[in-house]
Amino acid sequence: MLVKDSKFIISAAKAEQWPDDEIPEVVFSGKSNVGKSGLINALCNRKNLAYSASAPGKTRLINFYEINGVMRMVDLPGYGYSKASKRETKLYGKLAERYLTERKNIRLIIQILDIRHDPTEDDLHMIEFLNTIGLPFVIAVNKCDKLSKSQAVNRARNIAGMLDIDPDTPFILTSVTAKRGMEEIWEAIDFYCFDQEDDNNETE
């Protein structure tokens, strides 16, 4: 998709603030500081569309961004930040869980991992949760520019072996700096937000 218009809509602290329409949404999920906001910016060719916190754990609302007036990108609160209080973690964890289980607009989830580190227990729990709720998701292994190409391929292979995912689940190496993997992510977005929607409309 050629992004001609992208804009911030709202930072939602509760479900009543979610946009009330049927526009398809693509969700960006991952631990704190994994690069969710940066990936949204790179996909939209914007530097400051999505807010990147200066310290991990600062983004604790669900942020909605409208793309070309036909879809939204949704930035979930990052999980796994050790300095967040238990109360804070529970509050924004419940908000994200409610969004993922109740929101009818969701078409695809981009689950982001850091290629430099093994998946955390929180990452594994999140992927298990995504398998349970049955929504389509892809794995974006981010920050691959931090490694050589051969190292990145080997790390990605090792990480894939640690995950309980379907063999057909798209596994994409991404880099915001090098703009790597953006085309593959857009292909997944186009398929789940538009191609599949068209197929469903034709069969109705």
- Overall number of domains: 1
Q: How many distinct beta strands? A: 7
What's the end-to-end separation, in Å? 26 Å
CATH class: Alpha Beta
Spans of 5+ residues with little confidence (pLDDT < 50)?
54-58
- SSE series: EEHEEHEHEHEH
Under CATH, the homologous superfamily reads: P-loop containing nucleotide triphosphate hydrolases
Give the overall average pLDDT: 89
CA radius of gyration = 16 Å
> Strand fraction band?
15-25%
Which of globular, elongated, flat, extended, rod-shaped describes the shape? globular
Strand order in the largest sheet: 1-3-4-2-5-6-7
- Tell me about the largest β-sheet: 7 strands, mixed
Give helix % range.
25-40%
- Kindly identify the CATH topology: Rossmann fold
Instruction: Just name the CATH architecture.
Output: 3-Layer(aba) Sandwich
User: How many DSSP helices?
Assistant: 5
Coarse structural class: alpha/beta
Give an overview of the whole structure:
The chain contains five helices and seven strands. The chain is of the alpha/beta class. It has a single domain, classed as P-loop containing nucleotide triphosphate hydrolases (Rossmann fold), CATH 3.40.50. The chain has a seven-stranded mixed sheet, sandwiched between helices. It is globular, with a radius of gyration of 16 Å.
Brief account:
The chain is an alpha/beta fold and 204 residues long.
Give the helix/strand layout.
Elements lengths: L5 E7 L12 E6 L5 H8 L18 E6 L3 E5 L10 H17 L3 E9 L6 H13 L3 E6 L6 H14 L8 E3 L8 H22 L1
Parallel strand pairs: 2-4, 2-5, 5-6, 6-7
Antiparallel strand pairs: 1-3, 3-4
